[in-house]
Amino acid sequence: MKALSLHITGIVQGVGFRPFVYNLARSAGLEGWVLNSSEGVFCLVQGDPTVVDAFPEALRSGAPPMSLIESIVAEEVEPEALSGFSIRESAEVDGAMTLVSPDIATCPACTAELLDPDDRRYGYPFINCTNCGPRFTIIDDVPYDRPSTAMREFDMCPQCAAEYADPADRRFHAQPDACFVCGPRLYLEVARDIAGSAGLPADVGWNREGTSHHHRDEDDERARCEAILATAASLLLDGRIVAMKGLGGFHLACDATNEATVARLRERKQRWGKPLAIMVPSLEDAEMLCDLSDAERALLSGTARPIVLARRRGSGHLAHAVSGNLPDLGIMLPYTPLHHLLLAAVGHPLVMTSGNLSEEPIATVNTEALDRLAPIADAFLLHDRGIRSRYDDSVVREIVGFEQPVRRARGYAPHPIALPFETDVDILAVGPEQKNTFALLTRGYGFVSQHIGDMENALTLQHFHETLELYERLFRVRPTLIAHDLHPEYLSTKFALTLDLPRVGVQHHHAHIAGVAAEHGVGNPVVGIAFDGTGYGEDGHIWGGEVLLSTWERYDRVAHLREVPLPGGAAAIRRPARMAVGTLLGIDPDLLDHPGAHPLLSRLAEGEERVLRQMVTRGVNCPPTSSMGRLFDAVAALAGVRDDAIYEGQAAIELEAALDPGATGSYEFDITGTAPSIIDQRPVIEAVLDDIAVGTCVPIIAARFHRAVVASIVTMGKIVAVSAGTRYVALSGGVFLNRFVLEGAWQGIRDAGLEPLTHMSLPVSDGSVSFGQGIVAWSRRHEV
């Protein structure tokens, strides 16, 4: 007889790994045991030496689909006096860390049971098994066992307990296992005036009064649940807005085909202009609305089920207010049993947007939602399973041959980014102001949090602190080094400065580029093209059109866009027309007399041009900026696409949407000087004005401008790469959310014989900055 002790690390908890090991060992005729630990999974197998030796490879080759084995350490030990194979009680090891699975969309087997009238969980909104269901959003601590989750409040009924204990059952050790008798319940609360107009009694008996976790009658509970869902569907079809509790927080749902309802949702939520995501019942329904690639179909129907940005196939009877005239549609499929049931009852697309007022974090607690969302929702579809961590829906797109997150949250976080080194110090990187995430670097992992949001209010700051506390607890991280942005007024920076720990300040665009390089394991110098809207420069100016020669530790600013004034600071970001005037004044005040500038000037408010001239001339509240994002704003305003931005990036998004890819011609930037070189936009602006003056249409102007931006990226990439002797060109920053720019630059860099790099596991915008901050801090750790 031979015995092996095995230590398995990776995502091996919450994914059915112990039942898998148990059944594999039993089928192979081996004795032993398996247990969860805060260090991963440990097991002992003993028996025939040939079978034992083959066991580690059998683990790798047959592991559960949602698991991810990172390492198996095997050690031969003395056999124990055992009989059979068992799952042992979990073990806690002080300071030890294991990975935790993200939430998993409802699997095909559970979906089939959900819709099978002969199944005891037919219609149960919280059906799950070892292959699907809530994971990270219900966990309090590791090891991942029911007492360490929100499910500890629900005592299993005898049938669920029997499944949980049966090695042959799909729910063997499924921690969220539940049913109508013993599990979480639905509740419906309807505003009294809405209940009256919908013909509902004032007290429908479905609210949270009398909430009990005692076991219930299955048939009675199913009937109650069906009535709640039928009423919720009826309200939605009647044009009402329903706040619906999900996995990581609340959605606000409404009929996506009802123009008046979608407009009312926007008004109440204070989300004007920014596109809304929709949920459709099936992949076939998604195909009717969008032209989907194979990769996009796989994303929509996979285990993460993000919002996928896909090309529209026409209106498909959707309300125009869903996403206006934009070419992409944010679309997703049901990923919880409750979604499946509600979409089946409604029968057509629903808007599914985050349950919050714009710029606030998503609501998670019933009482919080009933308070914060009362001005928005007409009814509340609630349940009593707790949410331990706020999670928005992830947003993903397919681009240049791979999938790239635009917002990384549910289904992806907290899966770590593999570091290209083993860190000898735990690092907390607090991230930027907008699209904030934080990152924790420990051992060989970079744990980048889910999307936190814009750090501009107390609620978001609270969300940041709560999530940080959870990550530090679950992953046993005790930071001893802090990384932060250079901007002194960012809330994240101010928080970092309160910590009595060594700190490393990291320039925003250096973080962008260092993060891309590290994600690809490239430690050699790279050319970094960091184009975005705003980043605090080391000279106190607002950077955003940067070409860097960068390592993880250092960077040289080898080129940047020509600086122009930003009249009124943030006011110019909100009003692209103001940015356009500032750009013309910064380049040459005489450009305001160009015939191509007259349409813009005619749209300004009375006296606005005079005030802007005075501000720029006197240098009053006109910080200089090299931002490429602001140049997009200026061109959009000059071309008449947008004078005022209702949401961040709107002018640039609409300028891209307007371009005609078949249009001919391109504008051209001048590149002048050295150390640093200046990417001069004057010839581009002059050409735009010339085209406007002769009546060239917006789609052609937009196409020529986009081609000029792409050409500047490729040209600078080649110049700096040749002079520095590198073949890598890293692309990062919010401008690369522009599909035309990223795809064009990617291809142009490859055609030049160089290797383009961009984020694949993190967003290309500010959601990745924290990771880059952590990389730079690690590289400079001996300096503090």
Shape: globular
Question: Which strand-content bin applies to the residues?
Answer: 15-25%
**How many helices?**
24
- What proportion of the residues is helical, as a percent range? 25-40%
Q: Averaging pLDDT over every residue, what do you get?
A: 95
The count of β-strands is 31
Radius of gyration from CA coordinates: 28 Å
Distance between the termini: 55 Å
Profile the largest sheet.
Answer: 11 strands, mixed
> Which class of secondary structure composition applies to the elements?
alpha/beta
Show unreliable segments: none
Write a brief structural summary.
The chain is α/β, with parallel strands linked by helices. The protein is built from 24 helices and 31 strands.
Explain the overall architecture.
The chain is of the alpha/beta class. It is built from 24 helices and 31 strands. Strands 6, 7, 8, 9, 10, 11, 12, 13, 14, 15 and 16 form an 11-stranded mixed sheet that branches. It has a 7-stranded mixed sheet with strand order 28-29-25-24-23-30-31, with helices on both faces. Strands 17-20-19-18-21-22 form a 6-stranded mixed sheet, with helices on both faces. Helix 16 crosses helix 19, helix 21 packs antiparallel against helix 22 and helix 22 crosses helix 23. The chain is globular. The mean pLDDT is 95.
